[in-house]
Amino acid sequence: MPRRNRPPENVPHYTMSLRVHPRAGRVKGISWVQFVADRPTRRIVVRLWPNGPRLAAEGARLVVHDMSADVRSDEDLPVEQQPDPTTHVLELRRSVRPGEAVDVRIRWTLQLPGPILDRISRNGDAIRLGSFFPILAWEGRRGWATDPPTTTLAEASTSPTANFEVSIEAPQHLDVVATGEEVGP
After folding, report:
1. 120 near 113, Cβ under 8 Å?
2. How many CB atoms lie within 10 A of CB 173?
3. Which terminus of the chain faces fewer neighbouring Cβ atoms within 10 Å, N or C?
4. Is pLDDT of 77 > 50?
């Protein structure tokens, strides 16, 4: 469920609900991200790093099923485009002013690759998830970062530091290892 309090200025807040399906090799998720832009914008840009050249060649695929934004207007803003495999853009019907809070909702599915040496992989029931979800591509005082993905075994992405609340539903026989504070089993 998304947070209703405004995040501290320039610190996005992600709330994510994940369901891990190891046998199917999938992770399904809903992400809510709340952020405050420090310059005007008429779009929301998220990056889909699992769709970069190396991971995609190994079978990874991150699909955005739907994305909407609430900029405190009376309607959702559902005009979407994907100019390249790693970039998903939501065009807004009006410009967001600097300092205005924006709530974004994204429903997505990640298809996991097999046992590879990278930040996203699946080897039996062991799953590694790094930079696996649609992430804001905002660069403070500059705007949206839409540089091409790296073709090397590494990360080269731009996204602001953020706070996260994540709930993970996984089969009972699996352990979830993550940083942060556990608030429930």
Report:
1. yes
2. 7
3. C
4. no
For the chain, the average pLDDT equals: 85
Pair of tokens at residue 88: 């998903």
Residue 117 tokens, joined: 């040496």
CA distances 90 to 25, 50, 57, 156, 168, Å, are: 28, 19, 26, 22, 26
Three-state secondary structure of the chain? CCCCCCCCCCCCEEEEEEEEECCCCEEEEEEEEEEECCCCEEEEEEECHHHCHHHHHCCCEEEEEEEEEECCCCCCCCEEEEEECCEEEEEEEEEECCCCEEEEEEEEEEECCCCCCCCEEEECCEEEECCCCCEECEECCCEECCCCCCCCCCCCCCCCCCEEEEEEECCCCCCCCCCCCCCCC
How far apart CA 53 and CA 9 sit, in angstroms, is 34
Model confidence band, residue 10 (pLDDT cutoffs 50, 70, 90): low
| C-beta neighbour count of 15 within 10 angstroms | 18
Question: What integer is the mean pLDDT of 71-89?
Answer: 70
pLDDT band of 7, cuts 50, 70, 90: very low
Q: Are 108 and 65 in contact (CB under 8 A)?
A: yes
